[in-house]
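Hi R.,

Here's the chain you asked about this morning:
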Amino acid sequence: MLCDVVEAALVLHQTLATVTPPSTEAPHKEPGSPETGHYQVTGTNGSVCLLAYMGLQLNISFSSASLNQVLTVQDVVNLEPNTTKASGSCDADSATLRLSADANKTNLTFFFTLNTTSNKYHVSEITMSAIWPDMKEPFLARNSSLDYLRGTLGFSYMCREEQTLDVVPALSINTFQLQVQPFGLTQNKFGTAEQCQMDEDDMLIAIVVGAALAGLVLIVLVAYLIGRRRSHAGYQTI
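And the predicted structure, written out as tokens:
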């Protein structure tokens, strides 16, 4: 009898040990790198006052309606340029770029601010609203205390490397192949690009690697020439 009780207890212990607590987060999706979209905003005089070339990827967390109201879905969605419309406005010291996708079910807005004293601009605010089929309720995110994509008046800001713009805990944005200029455009074209730190670091690494390879080639060449000269000298002595 005692053996039966011990065996039953062991079986129950093994069963409980193999039970995994339910996760409160759904699996993460990876759609790959997004396509680069070309977006522009036209001012009241008919000229382009804001240009942006970039691929955008949304990292968003929301409550699922179909799975469970407690379950949080972490989704990664690429913004498709061919189904995204750009609009916005430009003023002397502020500009907005509004991107509307999926028949206006996703709206992403970048607010740029220009410091007229330092002639520096940056993204000061990002807002996003979305109504997707599986959302338990409409998604809304806003942060008006940001300092991203900092550039100089008359110059464009460029960052070809992937970078992440954290907006709120439930939303971050990955940018790819980005070039943007919200102020001081000339003839509807980008000004000279100011590269981000990541691009400069990559360029520095490339220069260092190139210099190291060139130095290695030079060392091998010098060693070859010295060896050849010694070989000729030996022949002359004989």
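Confidence is low (pLDDT under 50) at residues 8-13, 15-23.

Let me know if you need anything else.
M.
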